[in-house]
Amino acid sequence: MLPRLVTGRKGGGVFKRILSGLSGANLEIFKFGMYIMFPIGWMYYFGTNLESRFSVPDFWPPPESTHKIPHEREELLAELERLKNQRLERRARRLEMEARAKEGSGSAE
Description:
- The protein has 5 helices and no strands.
- By secondary structure, the protein is mostly helical.
- The longest helix has 36 residues, at 73-108.
């Protein structure tokens, strides 16, 4: 036999008894409480214990394998010098390739 609430028969159901007491001001207070508590509960559930609940192992690289940002003046100057040398090497390689391409296209004509 199905409960009365499911069958729709008249009589007392659990939800009907709870909601019948909520009318007028009580219903508005209940709705206001739900409007306030639902987002707070949602944020509390998803905001606590994030490290163990939503973590992916080995997602981020270890700090030893990432770039080290220079903070001291000497480190900054050394990094700038390294970048300048790298840029000049690439420029020299590019100019050499362009010169070879020019020589190759000049002999083909």
